[in-house]
């Protein structure tokens, strides 16, 4: 873990891939998360690396940055 002026950077490794590390950027002011695996940007679903940081920070609900509009009830379908 490393602290910058606006972000906390977590270095996350998983048991099944011990030689790989991912960087999760967490801004606690705006509750924004970004991961170097880019799964959130690609699929719109939080990756296990972000979930690890959520558990470590004891955050019990997803922030708005982790729920894309297409997964909400208020999404509109164009006809």
UniProtKB/TrEMBL annotation:
Q: Name one Pfam family in it.
A: SWIM
Tell me where in this chain the SWIM-type domain is found: 10-58
Signal peptide as annotated in the record: none
Give a yes or no for keyword Nucleotide-binding in this entry: no
**What's a single GO MF annotation on this record?**
zinc ion binding
Q: Which UniProt keywords apply?
A: Metal-binding, Zinc, Zinc-finger
Protein name in the entry: SWIM-type domain-containing protein
């Amino acid at each position: 873990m490393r602290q910058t002026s606006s972000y906390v950077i977590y270095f996350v490794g998983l048991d099944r891939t011990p030689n790989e590390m991912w960087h999760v950027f967490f801004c606690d002011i705006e509750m924004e998360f970004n991961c170097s695996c880019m799964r959130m940007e690609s699929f719109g679903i939080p990756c296990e690396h972000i979930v690890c940081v959520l558990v470590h920070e004891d955050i019990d609900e997803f922030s708005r940055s982790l729920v894309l509009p297409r997964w909400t009830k208020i999404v509109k379908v164009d006809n």
